[in-house]
Amino acid sequence: MSEKEISAARIEETIEKHHPIVIHEGHALDLSDWIDHHPGGRLSILHMVGRDATDEINIYHSNKALLMMKRHRIGRVREPWANLEPPIRSPSYYENVALHKERVDTRRRRSVDPCLAASIISKKLNVKGTCSRRSDASAGAIPEKMLSSDARTYNESVESTRTIYRQRYATEQEEKEIAQGVRENPSLDTATQRAITIDYRALHQQIKDEGLYRCNYAEYGIEMIRYMGLFGTFLAFLNAEWYLTSAMFLGMFWQQIMFTAHDAGHRGITGNFIIDTLIGAFIADFCCGLSIGWWKSSHNVHHLVTNMPEHDPDIQNLPLFSTSPTYLKSILSSFYNFQFAWDSAADFLIPYQKYTYYPVMALARFNLYILSWLHLCSPRAAQLGAAWWTRPIELLFMACYWVLFGYKLVWLTLPSWPIRIAFVLVSHLITMVLHVQITLSHWGMPTVDLGPTESFPQRQLRTTMDVDCPAWLDWLHGGLQFQAVHHLFPRVPRHNLRKCQELVKEFSDKTGIRYQCYGFVEGNKVVLSRLEEVANMVKMMIDCQKDMAETGEGLGH
Q: Each residue of 164-174: pLDDT tens digit?
């Protein structure tokens, strides 16, 4: 282990050569040899490149994993460290990676890099057409030969002006939200944020000292009784040919048991990678038909870049929803390497998103099926690190789910097509409660970035809300009511989060960071208000664009 000091300039140069350098406890870690084996996936590391990730690393890893990281040290850094912008947050990142990979000797490649694969696929698609959604200007456009030169010039001028206006308008709204965020939160100066970090680390130590990382397995005994009760009731009504009532209980079983899959995905049950991975795969893939690998690949990133429009996959839902004015700019997702273009569909749908929220949540499970299969059939599934067996296990379990649910139950057991359709719809509609619970904690919260000096705990509390409920109702929310606490300490077992909540409230009072906690109904109102707020921004923008088109203002004539 080298104790030499390495300069910030040298680290920046090394990062430019595509080395994932992360700062941890005053040391620079070169994770080049580890990134493809990281159980949390490549993207989790890439979003921390050039940053002091001490808190993120410490809360996500066991003591054993933290000891392993020492072997990747390449030198000490001078503190306090000034965070760099991770290269993956640059729009040209994937292009630069592809160019770099092309220069590397293919014999040294040990696996297919998903970034390179995505770039190559994109290039091939671009020969025939763009891989992103076509804009309204291109979809159904009049052939170029049929347009006069003046008409084409005019149309291009109109579209260019609209784009410039939309981006300028989005920037103005972002600046307003940034100013509000600065006013409502502790100062972003280094000394203030450093003090918050010190208090946060002391809180983390207190949680460890009080044994809140120890799982209470008796609570899972109670959970198992509830799961078996719901599943048994489903079977009883199915046997009695009360098909739609049976479907309701199957939906409730799915909604409840996924809470334990969430725990396993965070290794919050046994702490053992193999055991928790198998528990998660059995519940998510076998019992529910959803890929735990897909969930982990997006969820790990979500925890690190919470509510960042360009980077957090959990809020990238164009053209159905927009929770941030940033999407008006047509952002490139660093998670999907996909351009979320603001097009005519977004112009049409976003103004009504307050009204489409619950209907879409009711049907969201069907989309999760698609995302699960797309993940397992893509190179990304092989980049969650660790064990070679996770992908085959998931494919086997998901195949079993569709044999049991799709073939044995829906096709063979249910007597007619009307009943089959009704059964599937009812069972899946029941799970909308889970989808609302998942989106509730973030969709109504700020999405702007307050800069590289903002501490990890401040960003997590600023972008996450908790749901207030009595202790006897904790079973209904399954731990998702403590999302702010969970984002600060993601490996704390679910049944200990209520105890942690009181400590987090004290931390909030001490640091001045607002702890946001609302009742379930009030929390829904917060989300709907945010959806309406962004919708109103879009309506105003569209009205201004129409006015510009009618008057010709700004179109150069």
A: 888 899 999 99
Domain ranges of the chain: 8-89
- Six-digit token pair at 237? 């009504």
Residue 337 CB contacts under 8 Å (≥ 6 apart), including other chains: 94, 115, 118, 119, 122
Dist. CA 190–CA 183, nearest whole Å? 17
Beta partners for 5? 76
Residue 123 scores a pLDDT above 80: no
Sheet holding 21-24, edge to edge: 21-24, 27-30, 73-76
Alpha-carbon gap, residue 448 to 468, rounded angstroms: 25
CA–CA dist 88, 115 (Å, integer): 10
DSSP-assigned states of every residue in 269-330: SS--HHHHHHHHHIIIIIIT---HHHHHHHHHHHHHSTT-TTT-GGG--TTT--SSGGGGG-
Domain 8-89 fold is Flavocytochrome B2; Chain A, domain 1 (3.10.120)
Cite the beta strand spans of 9-63 per DSSP E: 21-24, 27-30
- Cα-atom radius of gyration of the chain, to the nearest Å? 25
Tell whether omega for the bond before 325 is within 30 degrees of 0, i.e. cis. no
pTM beyond 0.70: yes
Which pLDDT score, from 0 to 100, does residue 382 have?
64
Written as six digits, the tokens of 251 are: 């939906």
